Amino acid sequence: MKKSGLIIAMTALLLASSAQAMSVEQFLASAARIPRNLTALLHPDTRRLVGEVRTAFKTIRTEQEAALAAGRASTTCIPERVTVSSEDVLARLNSLPPSRRAISVTEALREWMVERYPCH
Q1: Which residue, 3, 4, 109, is CA-closest to 61?
Q2: pLDDT at 18
Q3: Burial 85-112, CB ≥16 within 10 A → b, else e
Q4: Which of 74, 80, 92, 116 could bond 67 through an S-S bridge, CB–CB 3.0 to 4.6 Å?
């Protein structure tokens, strides 16, 4: 009973976060408006974009943990600590062709983590 309740709660969380998910295109447009200097840290879009990336990584890790807890193979095997710079994230998102930029930031980062930390 507890396990099914946990799965239902996680599913609801994932659906709620995906309903409000920011697209890669929106993310890059917001990032382009942020000045590239020390005042960037004070810009509200900076906090919003950092939050978007954190939420995406949290979602990906939750999916990984849920799959493992349910005895399923996970698509990612992200280690406990992952260090990714803002430049890394922007480079990855900018590397997506314009035809794929309608996907969510979460989906784009999930694809990246599958490539970077696959489960063997």
Answers
A1: 109
A2: 45
A3: eeeebeebbeebeeeebebbbbbbbbbb
A4: 74
Element (H, E) at 50: helix 44-69
Q: Which helix (H) or strand (E) holds 109?
A: helix 105-116
Alpha carbon distance 32, 17 (integer Å): 24
The tokens describing 49, both together, are 């974009």
Which domain does 104 fall in, by range? Answer: 2-116
Q: What is the pLDDT of residue 37?
A: 86
The pLDDT value given to residue 6: 44
**Residues of the chain scoring pLDDT < 70:** 1-20
CB-based contact 70:7 (threshold 8 Å): yes
Residues 78, 81: Cα–Cα separation, whole Å: 8
In this structure, what are the phi and psi dihedrals at residue 30, rounded to the nearest 5 degrees?
-65, -40
Instruction: Quote the tokens at residue 68.
Output: 């493992």
Based on the structure, what is the number of domains in the chain? 1
Whole-model pTM over 0.85? no
